[in-house]
Amino acid sequence: MNAAFDTYPSLEMAFSDRFRGHNERDWTEWAERHFYDSATAIPPQAGEVWLNRQKLNYRGISDKNAIRHLIAANVDQAFLGEIGSLVDLKRLELECPFLAADLTPLLSLTNLEHLSIDSPRNLSDLSPLLELPRLKTLLITNAKKMPNIEWLRGAHHLEVIGIEGAIDCDYTIQSLAPLAGLRSLRAFLGVSTRLADKSLMPLAECPKLEFLAIARFAPRSAFEQLQQARPDIFCRWFDPKAWGTAALKPIE
Fold first, then answer.
1. Whole-angstrom distance, CA of residue 246 vs CA of residue 44
2. What is the pTM of this model?
3. Which of 180, 208, 220, 252 could tie 202 with a disulfide, CB 3.0–4.6 Å?
4. What InterPro entries is this protein classified in (predicted)?
5. Number of Cα atoms under 13 Å in the Cβ half of residue 249
6. In b/e form, how buried is each residue of 100-128, taking b as 16+ CB within 10 angstroms?
7. 238 to each of 77, 79, 179, 223, how far by Cα in Å?
C-alpha cells in the first residue's frame, strides 16, 4: 500500500476514491474556489467549474473554453447543448437530477475521459456514450428507465464502470454477462444494486479487473468461487469477517 492509501480508514475506501476520481479532490476547496452562481461569473481562464442550473444561469458557459473539469447539476437539454461546446472537457459530472433526454450533445466531447450521470430521469438508452473515443470511466447512478446493461457488451475501452442504485432505490442488474471479457476493465462499482442471476463468474473473464465494489447481492459461495478463480481482485466480500454485516434482501 502506498502513502496516499495510508490516509484512508480502509483499503476499500481508498480503492473506491481512486477509481471514482475523488482521491485528489478537496470538496471544501471546490465549494470555495470553483462554485459559481452563473456562467457569466466564471473567469475565462477557469479550468474547474461547479454550476447548478437555476433558470437560465448556465447561458454562456459554452464560451468558457478553458474548462477541463465540470460538475453540473439539474442539467436540462438546453444546458447540455451548451456543455457540448466545451470540446476540451476531460471530466464531466452530471449531478442529480439529469433532465435531458438526448445525449447527442455529449458526442462532440471527444477528449472526455471521465463521465458520471446521476439520476437520468428521461433516458433508457445510454449506448451512445460508448461512442466517446477517449472515455475511460463511466458511472451511471439511479437510471430507473435503463432496462439492462446489455449495451456495455464490447465496451473494451472502459477501465471503470459503475452501475449503481440510490440509497432509497436499488437497481437490479439482470446479469453481469455483458461485462465478461472486457479487456480494459479495472474496476466495477455496483453500490445499491441487486443481481438477478446471482452469478459473479463473468467478472473472472475480465483480465485486468482489480477492484470490485458491489452490494452483497450473491450467495457467499458465489463470492468464494470468484475469489478462487481470481484471487488478484480486491473485494470486501472475499473477507469472511465481512459476512457478519447486514445484506440486501435477496431477490425471490
1. 50
2. 0.93
3. 180
4. LRR_dom_sf (IPR032675)
5. 3
6. beebebbeebeebbbbbbbbbeebeebee
7. 43, 43, 20, 6
For the chain, 252 residues long, give each residue's pLDDT as a single digit of tens. Answer: 454 555 677 899 999 999 999 887 888 999 999 999 999 999 999 999 999 999 999 999 999 999 999 999 999 999 999 999 999 999 999 999 999 999 999 999 999 999 999 999 999 999 999 999 999 999 999 999 999 999 999 999 999 999 999 988 899 999 999 999 999 999 999 999 999 999 999 999 999 999 999 999 999 999 999 999 999 999 999 999 999 855 445 444
Place of cell 481470481: 230
- Residue 246 dihedral angles phi and psi, to the nearest 5°: -70, 150
CATH assignment, 5-240:
3.80.10.10
